[in-house]
Amino acid sequence: MPDAPQNSANPADANGPDERVRDISRWRRALIRPELGGIVGTVAVFTFFILLAYDSGMFNAQGVMNWSTVSAQFMIIAVGACLLMIAGEFDLSVGSMIGFAGMMIAIFAVTLGWAMWAAILITFVICVAFGALNGYIVVKTKLPSFIVTLATLFILRGFTIFIPQTIERKTIIGGIREASEGDWLAPLFGAKIGGPIFQWLGDMGIIGTFTRGSRMGQPIVDGIPMLIFWAIGLVIFGHILLTRTRFGNWIFAAGGDPQAARYVGVPVDRVKIQMFMFTAFCATVFAVCQVMEFGSAGADRGLLKEFEAIIAVVIGGALLTGGYGSVIGAALGALIFGVVQQGLFFAGVESSLFRVFLGIILLLAVILNTYIRRLITGER
Amino acid sequence: MQPIIQMVNIEKYFGSVIALAGVTVDFHVGECHCLLGDNGAGKSTFIKTLSGVHQPSAGEILFEGKQVNLTDPRDSIAAGIATVYQDLAMIPLMSVSRNFFMGNEPIKKRFGVNFLDHEYANEVTMTEMRKMGINLRSPDQAVGTLSGGERQTVAIARAVYFGAKVLILDEPTSALGVRQVANVLQTVDKVRKQGIAVVFITHNVRHAMAVGDRFTVLNRGTTYGSAKRGEITPTDLQEMMAGGQEMAQLEGSLGGTV
Questions:
Q1: Size of interface A-B (CB pairs under 8 A)
Q2: Is the ipTM, as predicted for this complex, more than 0.85?
Q3: Over chain A, what is the mean pLDDT?
Q4: Level-2 CATH architecture, domain B5-90+164-253
């Protein structure tokens, strides 16, 4: 550019920083990370319970295993709900899907007597197909996913009660543990890892052991359930998928502004459908782990889980409107959720107060997220 | 010189509504072709047939002399026709570099898995934005923190970087302040000089006169008139856009200020 006056008017040609751009403080920069709320919340919750309930057994091996397992359950469904919410959609059928998937496994493996691995695999196929159907209806009709999956919530729950009622004349089917005896796939969901280590820890007196009964001398915590490994695995997978891959960028784009994303060639519909399938997959993982643990499937399993997943995701910093959020945040949200739920029990607080607390923390999280959104986008 | 794009007798119906009743326009390399017209003249419908959003009901589109079928926005992008929409160019919550590479994310292989190449994306974004005259604080900065003019510029830079031969700008200046308009027009000028055909849709005659090499006025779904730079005065253009007579009357009653 030959003419000097134009140069001086053009901030790009000056080597120094643009005088119009204000430096933002480290604090503000940290604030616009979606995980921040989750990190602060986690620290606050742990501090609170260490002060309030340290002596109640909440932080011995048994207590830690207790709230870790509950948190891991929330995490598994929160990962799916998180990615789906960032892609701009909701799935309210998660809870019904959990009940339905558990019931399908029981029907195939116990009532029909199939091999457990076949029952598990076919259940995954059916449930992921339902997820795809949810997604297909949402992208084709352009209806809010809120309504479409609300319909699925009732449809799946209805089938979960109707099918065992009709076939077995009851709504709880047991015998899962017997049916998975010697199966190769079942341990992937139902086994506990690290038995010998815990036995050793028990022998050394580091963790508690049974002092009477048939299991005398065995450690009370006899291993880490596979559920926890699934939770960690799904969180890592979800986090990498979202932040480190091309597909992750498409998830953000699909939720941020589907039309703008379409105009640059992002296959928005496909991304959304796949996220519905992934949510269904997570719900099924949850269901399989649960029936393995309980040894039975019940028609009322998974009630309200969809909301718990959404709450964990929102506490974790995702925006309900889509396009923004983090899997790590959602995992921390699930951890907060689990620790508080179990911690209040350890602290001897009336359990109904948990709901009050949950409502308050949800409200605070949403207000904080909205504020953060304004910071990021510079809206006023 | 052969036009890069010839749009011949394009017609488009939406049910019983005739949106375009045979529009013929040629676009040339290195030129800024301004498409003017009042609201409802068919400008948007016309360029959407070129960007692959709508399929024309009749007529043909020739790209470098050969007939093409653009049935999807991706067809147009693949052919080198990029469109920058007024409000739909960028996603405010995403970072500039994520926006810049949206749909064309760079990939690096690690352990046989395709990962997003963040370093490369950030570096290219910073360089390309500097070329266009925007100093970013960081490539992680959310697009929401940029001004409207800067967002248009990011979108234009993105289209150019990904090899657009034809750049369609759908009313890029209509929601901007004076300074921002100047920035966008400057960007248009830079892009044109790189040998890209620019299609500039506007209903602001002054903005059109500032950068246009050719002007085509649409009115009620037809080509109302066409002119080259220097052949036409802003007043004539304004009159053509408004459909002549009525405007003259209106202008008379307002003391010639419109």
A1: 99
A2: no
A3: 87
A4: 3-Layer(aba) Sandwich (3.40)
